[in-house]
Amino acid sequence: MREYRQARSSEPHIMEYEGIKSEPPVQMPSNEELEEILGDPRRRPLLRSSPPSIPQLSEVELVRHYTRLSEMAYGVDNGPVPLGSCTMKYNPRIAKYYAFHPIIQNLHPLQPEETVQGLLEVAYKLQEWLAAITGMDQCSLHPAAGAQGELAGVHMIRKYHEMLGRLDRDEIIVPDSAHGTNPASASMAGFRVIEVPTGSDGNVDMEALKAAVSNRAAGLMITNPSTLGLFEQNILEIAEAIHSAGGLLYYDGANLNGLLGYARPGDMGFDIAHINLHKTFSSPHGGGGPGAGPVCARRVPVGDTGYYLTDLLPGPIVVKGEDGRYRLEMPRASIGRLRAWWFSTIPVVWSYVYILSLGARGLREAGEASVLATNYLLHLIRGVEGYEIPYDPDRPRKHEAVVSARPLMEETGVRADDVAKALLDRGFYAPTIYFPLIVEEALMIELTESEPLEGIEEYARALKEIAEEARRDPEKVKNAPRNTTVSRLDLVRANHPRTVTPTWRVHLKRQRGELGVLK
Ligand SMILES: Cc1ncc(COP(=O)(O)O)c(C=O)c1O
Q: What is the mean pLDDT of residues 386-412?
C-alpha cells in the first residue's frame, strides 16, 4: 500500500500575513482618479471614505500562500472522492479549459442577447442533449443546484394541480431511501411528505406504496437507481399507480450516471426530472460559482387548459427563432425564477464540452465503466470480514454501492466513521457515511468511471486492511487520521455555531469576546 502524508504548514490566515507593509503592491486609484472614472457626480456617494482593509501581498507571496493551502487540501486531482450520492468525477482539463476561457469569463449577464449568441447556442444545445438523454421534451438550465431543480420540480407539480383546480392535492410520496433534499424540497413547496419503506429486496415496498397513494397524492419523488445503487425493478408499476391516481412522477436525476445511454427516465414514465450537471456531467460542485441542476419535463397536457407541463418550467430558457438566432424566454406558464440571472455559465459550458467530447457512445461507455467500477469493488470486498452488503447482496449495483460496517462495529467497536477516517490516512477520500438512513453503519461508495483499475483495487485493499487493523488494535483505527494535515476533529466544535468561524469578521468578534463560547 502506498504511504501517504499530507502537507502540514502553520500557514497564517491571509489577513494575518506579514506581507509588504510599506508599499502596496497593487496601486489603487486615488479618489480624484476614481471620480474621473465614475464621471457622473451622482455616483460620488458610492466612493469609500477609507481604504479597504485588504492584505498587502506581493504576487509571489500570494501564489505561495494559496499553493501551500492547496497542498493541505484534498481534491479529485489527488485521488478518488468516492462520496456516494455526492461523488466527484475527475474533471477533464479540456472542459475546464473552455469553461474558464477568458471569452466565457469576461461575459456579463446584462449583455444584450445579440452579443452572446455563442453562449446561448451552447446552452440551447445542452438543453436539447439533456432532453434526449433523459427522454424528456424540454429542459431548463436555470436551477443552480440539484436541490434547486427539485424545488422547481415540486413547484411545477403544485402549479399543475392548481391549474386543474385540484387544490386538495397536498401530499408527496417519498421512499425512505431518498436523499434528504427530496422530502425537504417537497416540504418547502408546502406538501406533506408521505414516506414509504424499502422492501428487503431493495425495491420500494409496493404494498406500502399502493396504500399510500390516494386522491391527495400530488406526486412521487424517487431516484432510480436508488441511493442503495439498485435499479428500481417495479418502476413501471409505480408509475402506473401514481398516474392512475392523477399524480405526477418526479425523477431525482442525481444518480443518472448508472443509466447513461441505457435507460431514460422519460421512458419509465417520469414527468419531471432534474439532473446534477456536477455529478453526471463532470463539472465540479460549484467550480468558481454556483452549480447547475437543470430541470426537464415531458410535454404532458395540463388537462384541457391548452398548456403543457413544459410550459411550467422555471426560466428563462433558451429558444431558437426561425431566423436561427437564440434568445432567452420565460416558458408560457412558468413557475418563475429561482435565482438571479439565467443559468450557471461555468457548469453549463463544462458539461457541454464533456458531452461533446464523449459523444453518445462515449457517454454510454462512461455509464458502463461506472457500473463496472462499483461491481468490481463489491466483488473485491464481498466476504471481507467486518463488512456486509445490505439489501439483496448478490444483485448487481449501478453507479454506487452501500456497504455496512455493522459486523465490524459489533466485533471491535470500530464504527463506519472510524473506517472513513482510517481511509483518509491511506490517501483516500472517505465515502459518504451513515446514509442512506436505512442502512446501519453505512459506507456509501461511488467510484465513477474515472477511477483506474489499480485505484479500485487499492481502495478495496485499504478497506480490508482497516478491518484487520480494527481487530488487532481498535484504538488505532478510532484515533485515525494521523497522516493528514488536520487530525480527528471534535465533531461538535467543528459544527456548532458557537465554534465555527466562517468569516474573518466572525473571527475578530470571537477574539474580542463578542460572541458566546461553547463550554
Ligand atoms: C440522490 C440525490 N438527490 C439530490 C441531491 C442534491 O443535489 P445538489 O447537491 O446538487 O443540491 C443529491 C446530492 O448530490 C443526491 O445525491
A: 97
Q: Does the pLDDT of residue 347 top 90, yes or no?
A: yes
Query: Environment class of residue 501 by beta-carbon count within 10 Å: exposed (0-12), middle (13-18) or buried (19+)?
Result: middle
pTM: 0.93
Residues of the chain with CATH 3.40.640.10: 97-351
Q: How far is the CA of 177 from the centre of ligand 1 (A)?
A: 13
Distance, in Å, from the CA atom of 414 to the CA atom of 432, rounded to the nearest integer, reads 16
Quick: pLDDT tens for 295-339. 999 999 999 999 999 999 999 999 999 999 999 999 999 999 999
pLDDT of 26 > 80? The answer is no
Name the residue of 81, 83, 85 whose CB sits within 8 Å of the most ligand 1 atoms, as the mutation to test its pocket.
Answer: 85
What homologous superfamily does CATH list for 368-489?
Aspartate Aminotransferase, domain 1 (3.90.1150.10)
Cβ(291) – ligand 1 distance below 6 Å: yes
How far apart CA 417 and CA 420 sit, in angstroms, is 5
Q: What is the CATH number of domain 97-351?
A: 3.40.640.10
Question: 221 is written with which cell numbers?
Answer: 419523488
Residue 458, ligand 1, Cβ within 6 A = no
Between the alpha carbon of residue 131 and those of residues 252, 264, 275, 295, 465, the distances in Å are 15, 10, 10, 10, 44
